[in-house]
Specification:
Blueprint lengths: L26 H6 L2 H23 L8 H14 L1 H33 L1 H14 L8 H8 L3 H25 L3 H9 L4 H12 L1 H30 L4 H10 L3 H29 L9
């Protein structure tokens, strides 16, 4: 037996009182939605806590105030002392970081191309990745003497294994469908890595680049504290050590502040820019 479903007619609801579907954001809402503004606000709060605690402690030799540190930082910046030290450190860092990336790329290319290469990289990473780069300073002194080659050597060690490990992990997580597509197109060796594996594994590679940068920057400052004493290489590490020797605690804090500022700039400008133009645009991360 067939029964027709009755039709219902309803009057449309007046939605004028529901509210605005779309409206321009206020200035405070736009600022709250801005990542940079939120991070700056966090830094300002930390600086205020630092200032309040230092004033409460009342011992500039032990813990200078934020205002004193910023004053020394600005004076040395205007005098050209800090820019000169920063340039010296960054030059060495770029050389070591670039050499480490090249070696990591070669190791991972061989590792994904042959089984022996994969076993070799896994073994070397397990052996040398836990080894602190700063522990190689005596060996670097024996092999390369005082100066930039020794600094570059320890930076390469700190970068190579972290980047290679993350890159290899990213390559191994690439879906088999993409791998088979590359093989069906006849891609092998470096072309297979560059056209198939690197784009698919780029989030892991980018994470490795960040970790390698952090390791390299920390290793450089620590190494300059030693090499600066021996050969007066003139980097930020030597700046910090020199200020400590003269009991200028505010200048020590200014040197540490410079290290932090450079780290923040590299992370927020360089790596964040790469991330926006790659993995975020490709929809690989949220």
């Amino acid at each position: 037996m067939r029964t027709d479903r009755p039709e219902f007619e309803r009057e449309p609801i007046d939605a004028r009182g529901v509210g605005e579907v779309e409206r321009p954001l206020s200035l405070m809402e736009r600022l709250a939605n801005n990542d940079g503004v939120r991070k700056v606000a966090i830094i300002v709060v930390l600086a205020l806590v630092w200032e309040i605690y230092a004033r409460w402690l009342g011992n500039p030799l032990l813990f200078p105030t934020a205002s004193d540190t910023f004053t020394v930082f600005w004076e040395d910046l205007r005098a050209g002392i800090l820019p000169e030290r920063m340039l010296t450190s960054i030059q060495v860092l770029v050389m070591g970081y670039a050499a480490g990336l090249v070696l990591a790329g070669l190791f991972t290319t061989v590792a994904v191309s042959t089984r022996v290469g994969s076993d070799l990289l896994s073994t070397l990473t397990a052996m040398f990745n836990p080894l602190p780069a700063i522990a190689l300073l005596p060996l670097a002194l024996i092999w390369f003497g005082l100066g930039k080659p020794s600094l570059v050597f320890v930076i390469v060690h700190s970068v190579l294994w972290a980047v290679a490990l993350n890159t290899l992990t990213g390559f191994r997580s690439v879906p088999e469908t993409l791998r088979m597509s590359g093989r069906n197109l006849g891609l092998k060796g470096a072309r297979y890595v560059a056209l198939i594996l690197i784009p698919a594994a780029f989030p892991a590679i980018l994470a490795g680049l960040k970790i390698g940068w952090a390791f390299a920057w920390r290793t450089l400052i620590a190494a300059e504290l030693v090499f600066g004493v021996s050969s007066r290489s003139g980097g930020l590490g030597w700046y910090i050590f020199e200020a400590r020797s003269e009991l200028e605690t505010a200048r020590v804090f200014a040197g540490l502040l410079t290290v932090i500022v450079i780290g923040l700039l590299v992370e927020s400008v360089i790596f964040r820019g790469i991330e926006r133009r790659t993995v975020l645009r490709w929809g690989m991360q949220r």
